[in-house]
Structure formats: structure tokens, C-alpha cells
Amino acid sequence: xxxxxxxxxxxxxxxxxxxxxxxxxxxxxxxxxxxxxxxxxxxxxxxxxxxxxxxxxxxxxxxxxxxxxxxxxxxxxxxxxxxxxxxxxxxxxxxxxxxxxxxxxxxxxxxxxxxxxxxxxxxxxxxxxxxxxxxxxxxxxxxxxxxxxxxxxxxxxxxxxxxxxxxxxxxxxxxxxxxxxxxxxxxxxxxxxxxxxxxxxxxxxxxxxxxxxxxxxxxxxxxxxxxxxxxxxxxxxx
Length: 238
Ligand code: C5P
Hints:
The protein has helices at residues 17-28, 35-48, 56-65, 93-102, 106-119, 132-136, 150-163, 170-186, 208-222; strands at 6-10, 31-34, 69-73, 76-81, 84-85, 125-129, 142-147, 199-202. It has 238 residues and is of the alpha/beta class.
């Protein structure tokens, strides 16, 4: 059996991590893990339970008993709570802002990290977020860091929201992103940054397919011969 590796993709919101992560996982036949969805899930469930996030004991008790289920397929990463799929609810603007607020809490970060490591225990994963190559999987064989100009990232996020029938003025989207970027990059616990060995890709002028091709080229270069994707690998875009 071919060895199964861990591939990480980090970067700010709207840099293309989710699209590229999903496509790359489908091309490699790997599991796709979206860590941002887990921070969103904690924010969503904490709000539902009216949990006081400043109460360390209550937060700990909540996280210890919180056992969402996950599935990953060519459409993306899905989460269920108490038998109900909640993934679409996690994209709402209030949950989005709340997610970067819960993400500063070390106890929340350790909960998410533990879940990700458990799901990745057999390797064969593409995992994306802010600290996957630096903190969650420092041993990952291949690491990427995606970035893009703020206005391009805001335009992409605006399109995502339109699809979900959320209309926000473009300046509000850019403001929301800039605010989250600042919180994610300046927090004490696992701030957003590129791992030293990550390949940095500026996706401002690239489409997802072009980014995936660069990633596949890097994977072929880094992994031992015969362990990366075949040169002729067909992209299964699902
Ligand atoms: O990637 P996404 O926009 O879904 O992430 C939502 C929020 O979760 C981010 O703004 C960030 O605050 C947090 N996050 C994080 N570390 C990760 C992934 C996401 O802090 N690895």
C-alpha cells in the first residue's frame, strides 16, 4: 500500500484554501479536513447554549462532552450535531465573526487540534486552516501557505455569501475580512503565519485549477518517487 501523507494549507480568509484543499484531496483520494469549520462549530454551539466563554470551567465541561460527527467527500467537509447536519449554518456572518473570537481561546484550540489529529491518525489528509503546518501537524510532509490581495479575497467571499443568499455590501465584506485577519494574525495562541518550509502561493491572479496544479507539482517534487500523484493524474473535480 502507498504511504499516506499529511498535506497542510494555511492562509487568511478568502485566499482559496477551501476550494484548493477540496480539489487537492479529491485528486489524491485523501480526506479533506477544514479546521475553520470546527472553530465555527464551537462558536455556533456555544451561542446556542448561551455559554459564557469567559467561564473556563463551563467551557471545559462543554468541550469535553461535545462530540460532533464529521464526513468528508468531494463536496467538502460536513459536520453533524445530535444527528443533524449543521454545515450550512456555520457560514452565516454572525458565526463567522464569532469563530475568530472563540479561536483566541487556548482551550478551544486544543479541542480542535485534538479532533484534527484523531481524524488524521492514518494519514492521507489535506488539512486547511491557520496553524495546520505550524502547530497542528508540524510533521506534515508537504505544506502550503496561500495568500491574495485583500480586495480579491473580499470579492471571493462576497460571491460565497451571495450563493448562500446573504447580501452584504462589498465594503462590509472587506471590513469583516480585515478585522478577522487582524485577530487571527495578532492573537497569542497559534497566530496565522506560514511555516518556514511552506510553499507560499499568491493566488491573486490564479484560478483554483492553476493553484492545484502548482500544489501537485510541489507534491511530486517533495514526496519520494512513486509516492506522489502520477504525472498523468486526472483531476477529479467532483
Ligand atoms: O477558515 P474559516 O474562515 O472558516 O475560519 C474561521 C475562523 O476560525 C478564522 O477566522 C480563524 O479565527 C479561526 N481558525 C483558526 N485556526 C484555524 C482555522 C480557523 O484560528 N486553523
